[in-house]
Amino acid sequence: xxxxxxxxxxxxxxxxxxxxxxxxxxxxxxxxxxxxxxxxxxxxxxxxxxxxxxxxxxxxxxxxxxxxxxxxxxxxxxxxxxxxxxxxxxxxxxxxxxxxxxxxxxxxxxxxxxxx
Length: 116
Prior knowledge:
By secondary structure, the chain is an all-alpha fold. It contains 5 helices and no strands. The protein has helices at residues 2-18, 24-50, 57-78, 86-109, 111-115. Helix 1 crosses helix 3, helix 2 (24-50) crosses helix 3 (57-78) and helix 3 (57-78) crosses helix 4 (86-109). The longest helix is centred in the N-terminal third of the chain and has 27 residues, at 24-50.
């Protein structure tokens, strides 16, 4: 279900850009941030397995808040990383809701058009 949510969101984002409701650069930004966040989760998973330096949870949350949450969802599901810890998941979903609210506000007010 989380992967479906991420895919539907990205499809809607692309559709919004197609219908000129959102600058295409925003779509590119979400895709870039999602890929970066997925990679950060993968590095953290690898570090956890090898007992090496870990990525701070606050960094992962910040990346999600900025727009990388679809990539985080993919990483949580495909890599099985940060998918069980309840406190992390609660804060993660708060970053998703906050990001979506900010995106919606930006679209509604026309801020996104002026941003790029």
